[in-house]
Design brief:
It is built from five helices and no strands. The protein has a single domain (5-150), classed as Four Helix Bundle (Hemerythrin (Met), subunit A), CATH 1.20.120. It has helices at residues 8-29, 35-68, 72-96, 102-130, 133-150. The chain has 163 residues and is mainly alpha-helical.
Length: 163
Amino acid sequence: MLRDKSLIPFSHQHQHALALCVRIGRALKAGPLDEQEIARWQAEIERIFTTEILFHFAAEEEILFPPASRFKPLQLLIEGLVRQHTTLRNYANSAKARQLDARQLLVFANTLSNHVRAEECQLFEGCQKMMTADELTLIGSQIEEFFRSRGVLTNACALPDQS
């Protein structure tokens, strides 16, 4: 299903998150990471969480999840997504404290990737089927205002730190 324009800011951010997951996966498949490389990945996770993902989670929890929860088929999904937000925030906090190892980096990347895919394929599709065009438009304007007021870009991919 074509993504409703009101949800596109979230989908753009999902692309950024998936790119991070792919990059982590490729780095781990290329061979064992030394402590310095692991530290760089943790710094990258911290940066992306601080500049985008934490705002993304907040916008979903404040703007999208409440009206979507009105629909019984989406309620359990949303409860699971909220729990995943907590798990992913915990990984980000561990990355900030430089406490992740290579295995945990992979688990983080897989968890984030699966989370994004559930939102795109289940939540957003469900919202588009169950919500009216007016509801989606209102949500879209609230999302745009939320991100604009916080200076969060939704259509440009941040480049990874090259240091």
